[in-house]
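ARCHIVE CARD
Drawer: 12
Card no.: 0347
Subject: one protein chain, sequence and derived structure
Cross-reference: see card 0346
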Amino acid sequence: MDQLKGQMGIREFYAIIVIIVGTKLGDDTPTILFKHLETATWIAPIIIGAVSIFPLFLLHKTLDLYGNKNLAEIILNLFGKYLGFIILFILFAIFFSALTIDSATYGNLISTMYFTKTPFIVIYALSMALCAYGAKKGIKHIGSVTWALLIYIKIALLVVLLLLFVQGESSFIFPIFGPGKWEVIKQSVTHSSIYVDLFYLALLFPLISEKKSYKKGIWIGLSFVTIELSVAIMGYVMLFDYIGVKMMNYPFHEAIRYFEIGFLINVETFFFPFWLVAAFLRFTVYLYLNALLFSYIFRIKKFNYLIPVMATLAVVLGLIPESPSFTLIHLREKLIYITTPIFLIFPFVIWIFGRIKGVKNNENVSN
C-alpha cells in the first residue's frame, strides 16, 4: 500500500503524539471534565494517563507477536475476513465520528471567537481542504513538518502556561479533590478515551524505523501530554475559578483573550496562530489515519484518493448540528463515553486472541 513509502523516526512520531493529544487542552475537553470534577479537574489527566498504561502495554505486546503488522492487519488476521471487517468498520465509524465532531468544534470555535463575520461553512471548508492537502503528502511528510513546528508551538504554549500561573490565584484549586476522591476516579476512568488517539496510532506501527522507537514514542508522549494537560487545566482553575471556567466552552481561548502584558492588548493575536497550526496538523493526521483504516476495510491500495472525499464528507456531516456551540460538546461527550470501554477492554481482547492463536500456530508448526 502507499503508506509503506518511507518511514518515520522517533522524533516525528513523538511530535505527532504530542500534537494530536496535546491540542485537546485548547478545545472543549477541559469543559467536559470541569462539569463533573470542578476544582479536581486537573487530576483527571493524571488518572487517565495511569489507566491508559495497561491497555497500551497489552497493545504493544500484541504488536510484538505479529512483527511488522499494524493494528488493522492484526485484527483481520485474528478475527477473519467477516468478523474482522465488522470490528474494523466499528473502529472506523468511531474515529470518523471523532474527526467530524472535533473538526466541526474547531471550526465553530474559530468562527465564533475570532472571525465572527466570516460564515462558519467557509472557515470549516477551507480548514479541512488545507488538512486534506497536507494528509495527501503522506505520513512521513506530516511527521517532518510536525517535528519542525513543534518547538515553536510549545514555546508559545509555555508562555501561556506561565501567564496562567502568574496571573492566577492558587487558592482557587482548593478543595483539591473537588466532589470527592471516588467521584474523581470514576469520572476520570469513564473519560479515558480522551487518550484513544494513542490506540489508533498503532496503524502506523510498521512505518516507524525501529520498533523500540514506537514504544518509546508512546510512553514519552503519554507522559508529556499528561503533564501538559494537567498543568493547563490547573492554570484555568487558578485564573477563572472552577465556577467561571465551567461556563466557558473554550477556556484556553478565553484565557489568551483575558491576558494583558504591560501596554500590550489583544495578546491572543500572538498565540492564536500557533494554536491554529497545531489544530491543522492534528486533523491532517486524523484524515490520514481514517483513510488508512478505511483502505484496510475495503482493500483499497491507493487510499490517498480517499482523503479529499473524507474531508468533504466530514464537512457535510459537521454542518448538520444546529446550535453547534451547545450541540457539539454534548455529542463529543457521548462519543467519549461510548469509546472508553473499547479503549480499555479491546487491547486485552486482541492480546488474549493473539496469544491463543500464537500458541496454536506454534503447535501446528511443531506437529
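Annotation on reverse: Residues 71-113 form the longest helix (43 residues). The chain has one domain: 2-366.
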